[in-house]
């Protein structure tokens, strides 16, 4: 049922897009059909695939690094109260600082290439994952812990069987936020460092008013976002099949 | 503890150190909240022999749950001595605990929840499965083995909690209103099963209930507690013969006598104790 409504809404969006393309002057908004043709052409000549590959490799590497650092760190911070209390202020301070502020420093340290770009992605994606993992470990049900203690489970047993599974829903929220911010930062990185990938195309076509190509790139980015968040949603419903509907 | 109850039919066995499974001596416990200290239990002395069934009866907030948590070793007393099997209490498979709020693991199935209590026992996987099957059957939940707690009714959830406490077949059973959420018939069934298991295992049971009838029907001794601070007012020997027919015994003179006595005792306690939540409330009809 949802699918039907989603498709209907897409039809509505395309209709609005069509209307906008006919009414906004100076060819600023290309028609859906023209955009589609440009898109197939860009796919055929390899421009889109090349840029997509470059962006995805930055995005996925940065996101992967963020995940393998943030989840264990969040768990350790939540598990060892003193460590958590010591570090949390700094984590919150860092997450409140716009990460763009670090770009000049990153460029100075790492140059304009791949390392600099994945660092920008990593910095963006890591904070929501870390903060949510940490919050998940802290939000554990103390009544369940007491139950597990009463049963005779060791501290490690309690951590593995109660604390970790209990924080999974939080971690998934963090992953969703991290994945979104990571994608944004991929484009930011490609705009601010060596101009490559989808972000690079965005800059080139935007600056030269080639709006059809420009729209194709924007839509491609949107589609990556959809694929990533839907994958995570699938993972979530896998892991939380125990949650009752409604 | 003196007994002001009607003449006990049979007194408890003389104190025999070897059989005293749970001993509390002059136990005090307070909780601190927002810098304010409340005395929750004051000067509790109680001992429970193997094979005895002891009910704790008393108005809400008099520290019954706290007493069970102390006996399990989940919390430590401020002062006084607690010994279980001769040692300071330590939670584990030798002690089963049915929590008042069931405390089921929401992401684990019914059978996994029940098996959970066997994890620290070192039993093999197959053995754990087999036992979980038996106890699921005992509480009548075989058909729901693969359901999650969120899909169960309150009474079913309580039966899962019950099975989880029983499955290690513990020497000591601490039960906090374990049947409160059950319908009358299921309750009687579970009472009967508990009686059976208890006499087979020879365990000692500390059983919290708000039901006077249930306390009389199941117990050897009834510990009547008063609030603020929680203290033991009286220990009553039930003195009804065993095995008991839970239903028929309700018309026995001793049962009726005890029930009247306890009802009056608790009513007076709730209405006339200045520490009670309902102090001075009028119970006369208009
Ligand atoms: N962890 C805690 N922190 C602060 N106060 C507590 C804590 N646990 C219990 N208390 C207080 O101790 C008193 C006794 O609580 P307890 O749960 O033992 O009562 P109870 O006899 O089991 O009551 P009920 O019949 O309602 O279950 C209450 O006044 C309660 O507010
Ligand atoms: Mg209680």
UniProtKB/TrEMBL annotation, chain B:
InterPro entries per the UniProt record, alphabetical: AAA+_ATPase (IPR003593), ABC_transporter-like_ATP-bd (IPR003439), ABC_transporter_ATP-bind (IPR050166), P-loop_NTPase (IPR027417)
Q: Which residues belong to any copy of the ABC transporter domain? A: 22-252
Which molecular function term from Gene Ontology is one that the record holds?
ATP hydrolysis activity
Protein species of origin:
Pelagibacterium lacus
Superkingdom of source: Bacteria
Q: Which residues form a coiled coil?
A: none
- What PROSITE patterns is this protein classified in? ABC_TRANSPORTER_2
Q: What is this protein called?
A: ABC transporter ATP-binding protein
């Amino acid at each position: 049922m949802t699918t039907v409504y989603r498709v209907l809404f897409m039809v509505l969006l395309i209709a609005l897009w069509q209307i906008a393309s006919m009414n906004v002057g100076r060819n600023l908004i290309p028609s859906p059909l023209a955009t589609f043709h440009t898109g197939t052409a860009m796919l055929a000549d390899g421009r889109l695939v090349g840029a997509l590959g470059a962006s995805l490799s930055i995005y996925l590497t940065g996101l992967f690094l963020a995940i393998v650092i943030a989840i264990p760190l969040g768990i350790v911070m939540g598990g060892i109260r003193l460590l958590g209390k010591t570090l949390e202020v700094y984590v919150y301070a860092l997450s409140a600082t716009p990460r763009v502020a670090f770009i000049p420093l990153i460029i100075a340290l790492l140059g304009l290439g791949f390392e600099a770009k994945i660092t920008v992605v990593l910095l963006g994606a890591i904070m929501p994952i870390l903060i949510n993992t940490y919050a998940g470990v802290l939000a554990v049900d103390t009544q369940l812990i007491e139950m597990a203690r009463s049963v005779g489970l060791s501290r490690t047993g309690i951590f593995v069987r109660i604390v970790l599974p209990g924080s999974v829903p939080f971690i998934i929220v963090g992953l969703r936020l991290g994945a979104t911010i990571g994608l944004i930062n991929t484009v930011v990185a490609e705009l601010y460092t060596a101009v490559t990938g989808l972000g690079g195309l965005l800059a080139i076509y935007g600056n030269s008013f080639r709006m059809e190509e420009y729209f194709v790139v924007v839509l491609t980015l949107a589609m990556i976002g959809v694929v990533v968040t839907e994958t995570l949603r699938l993972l979530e419903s896998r892991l939380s099949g125990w949650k009752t509907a409604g | 503890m003196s007994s002001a109850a009607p003449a006990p039919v049979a007194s408890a066995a003389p104190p025999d150190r070897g059989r005293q499974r749970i001993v509390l001596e002059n136990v005090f416990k307070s909780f601190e909240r927002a810098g304010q200290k409340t005395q929750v239990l004051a000067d509790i002395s109680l001992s429970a022999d193997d094979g005895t069934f002891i009910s704790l009866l008393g108005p809400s907030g008099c520290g019954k749950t706290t007493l069970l948590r102390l006996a399990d070793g989940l919390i430590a007393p401020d002062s006084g001595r607690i010994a279980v099997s001769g040692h300071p209490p330590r939670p584990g498979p030798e002690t089963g605990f049915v929590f008042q709020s069931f405390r089921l693991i929401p992401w684990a199935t019914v059978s996994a929840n029940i098996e959970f209590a066997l994890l620290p026992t070192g039993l093999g996987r197959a053995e754990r499965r087999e036992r979980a099957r038996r106890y699921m059957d005992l509480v009548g939940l075989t058909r729901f083995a693969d359901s999650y707690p969120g899909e169960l009714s309150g009474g079913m959830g309580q039966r899962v909690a019950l099975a989880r406490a029983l499955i290690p077949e513990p020497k000591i059973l601490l039960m906090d209103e374990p049947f409160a959420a059950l319908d009358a018939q299921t309750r009687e069934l579970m009472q009967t099963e508990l009686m059976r298991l208890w006499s087979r295992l020879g365990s000692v049971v500390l059983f919290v209930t708000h039901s006077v009838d249930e306390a009389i029907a199941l117990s050897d001794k009834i510990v009547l507690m008063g609030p603020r601070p929680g203290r033991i007012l009286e220990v009553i020997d039930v003195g009804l013969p065993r095995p008991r027919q839970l239903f028929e015994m309700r018309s026995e003179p001793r049962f009726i006598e005890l029930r009247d006595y306890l009802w009056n005792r608790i009513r007076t306690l709730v209405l006339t104790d200045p520490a009670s939540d309902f102090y001075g409330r009028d119970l006369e009809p208009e």
